[in-house]
Amino acid sequence: MSSSSPTSQDPLGHALLAYQRGKQNATITVHSNVAEEEPLPAAYFFRSLWEMPELERTALTECRGRVLDLGAGAGCHSLELQSRGFEVKAVDISPGAVQVMQERGVGQVACHDIYDPALTKEKYDTVLMLMNGIGLAGTLEGLERFLQHAHQLLAPGGQILATSSDISYLYEDEDGALVFDLNGPYYGEVEYTMQYEEEAGATFHWIFADPSLLQDCAEAAGYQVEFLDEDDQQQYLVRLTLKG
């Protein structure tokens, strides 16, 4: 799920492989610089269509043409799209995740960084970025870079379907006022480390973009912006379509 280069450290992949091999309680521990550590059951990456949040189900119905599933995890979205007849390429930075997807029957799978030149050799009608997938861009600067880079991934009229969240609520005081350093980094930039059993991965950056920020960045990068849905957790689904 990180956008950095693959390494031998792969706690996410090893947890997914353990679950795939029958370890039903395999759990990743997620450490961040903004919240208490959280358990993330590997089972979540194997959810069926009706176990998915409504935002994800909506995103799947909005897919069209050839699909590139970025940060595909264990392939739950790719498998659902394949079952509907879509041609899908699933990409993840985690070698273990890629192995799991191959074993589960995802037809086209690759272990790539989101900027890997190999990805730009083909064009896609839909780039899918679910599970707060816009976060793959890492930082505000990274988001601007990715939105420009995605021009090389999209076919004419192509779309990005992505989810993200406004996490300003983490910075509310007891009176509901927002308290964060206006001179510091953007409040939606988070540092994460994943751990599975005794194996800890490298720290990586993840961005949660509030809707107005994403709209500004996307319009500056030449996209039309359409917010398709939101939930009560301040998470939203957005469609970014290349103009022209």
From TrEMBL:
Limits of the Methyltransferase domain: 67-158
GO MF: methyltransferase activity
Residue runs in coiled coils: none
Keywords carried by this UniProt record: Methyltransferase, S-adenosyl-L-methionine, Transferase
Keyword match Magnesium: no
Swiss-Prot/TrEMBL GO biological process terms: methylation
PANTHER family the UniProt entry points to: METHYLTRANSFERASE, UBIQUINONE BIOSYNTHESIS O-METHYLTRANSFERASE, MITOCHONDRIAL
Protein name per Swiss-Prot or TrEMBL: Class I SAM-dependent methyltransferase
Record organism: Hymenobacter fodinae
